[in-house]
Design brief:
Distance between the termini of chain A: 32 Å
Strand content of chain B: under 5%
Mean pLDDT of chain A: 84
Number of strands of chain B: 0
Structural class of chain A: alpha/beta
CATH topology of chain A: Rossmann fold
Largest interface: A-B, 27 and 25 residues
Strand order of the largest sheet of chain A: 6-7-8-3-9-10
Number of domains of chain A: 1
Largest sheet of chain B: none
Number of helices of chain B: 10
Number of strands of chain A: 10
Low-confidence stretches of chain A: none
Radius of gyration of chain A: 18 Å
Radius of gyration of chain B: 19 Å
Helix content of chain A: 25-40%
Shape of chain A: globular
Largest sheet of chain A: 6 strands, mixed
Number of helices of chain A: 8
Oligomer: heterodimer
CATH architecture of chain A: 3-Layer(aba) Sandwich
Order of helices and strands of chain B: HHHHHHHHHH
Chain lengths: 232, 260
Amino acid sequence: MIEISGLAKRFGTHEVLKSLDASILANKITAIVGHNGSGKTTLIKCLLGLDQYEAGTIRINDYQLTADWNYRAQIGYMSQIARFPENLSAREVITMISDLRQGSPTQATELIQYFHLDDEMDKPLKTLSGGTRQKVNAVVSFMFNPDLLILDEPTAGLDPISSSSLKDRILSEKEQGKTIVITSHIMSEIQELADTILYLLDGKIFFDGPVDVLIKQTGEKNLERAMAKLMS
Amino acid sequence: MNTLLKIIKYQLHDLLRGKWVLVYTAVFFVLTDGLFRFGGDSDQVSLSLMNIVLFVIPLVSIVFGTMFFYNSREFIELLLSQPISRAALFLGLYLGLSLPLSAVFLVGVGVPFIYHAGFLGGAYWILLLAGTSLTCVFTGIAFLIAVHYEQRVKGIGVAIVLWLLLAILYDGIIMFILFALEEYPLEKLTLILSMLNPIDLGRILILLQFDIAALMGYTGALFTKFYGNHIGTVIALLTLGIWCAAPVWLGFRAFLKKDF
């Protein structure tokens, strides 16, 4: 699904990604993990074309990323912090995006019900709580039914109920054949969701493999302890 | 309707939500109307307006432009993760601000002029043209600054300092250079210096339309002497055109490469 080779990105003198190679499999949930500042978000932003990289190539579905932007129609991106024009309501944002990309948000109505957002849709976004905004963010990234979902710490700021329903949703999207890339610092969550782990360390992939293999390799009882052993 | 037009449409929506558009129009309207009521003929009104146009338009365009770009940050980040081209987004943002700002100026100054003078004289056209060009130039510079500086406070600071430099300090700097180098022939240097400042160009452009060499200052007089009124006007207009395009083009290039 996604092939990354020799990807390098620096901010000033700080090298964030150093000739990184990785592949992300189709119809799987791949978790990108690593300590704070290890380049998880940068890697994701390179996939989306939000960050420009110095070297390397990225292929998504055999399409090599250039300055072209059409490929983003297949991607649903949920950013770490929901960024919306603050004066608009969630409904206006959905209408605006659908209008601009000339797509029909086939899943929007169903998602709004799924996340119980009906009463929040017409309020200005600046009046909504962090968790509610995050749910709107989820609706916006899922609503066009994209093949590839890129979720940057999707459950941050959500209450346990919303967090569980988002996780259920992610699993059901996978069952429908979607490819999902997720980052998180909550290891139990990753153990619950992910098939494969990409562990980023010093701008390179330190571990790439299935979750249970990692746990077995380290001889620990769960992913959190396995990761802690790996990181120390 | 293509993406560019749609982005302009959403920017217009956003602008019209704020009251400042009305205030900006009203200021120009009241001013022009007032100048007529105090008994000026259209030439006198044009000259009085010139000074306001040369100070206010660059200030409003550069400060408001920078703030506008920083305020659109969320909108930009949201749209960049969608299948929308960066080029269309940047041009949409630029036109979505420079067009309404120009329109507001044209309406605010143009309507009372037609109402009082009944026509738009030649000099008056040039005044409108200079105001519109300066709006485009300084919104472009504002965008260039805002793309370049990540921090809002820094960006707005740079914008205000640049305005001070071009609108107020520039003449002083020219005078200083002329005094320091008075032993040498300075005509060419002065002409080049005046072309490097769009506000100076605007002033020369307007003054060339009136037969008042004494009011033109050194640079204006030189322009007339070197090129005559007609060619001088054409050269000033062309240079202003370059000034409209250059900052937008540089900002555009930087925007395409920027990390969000």
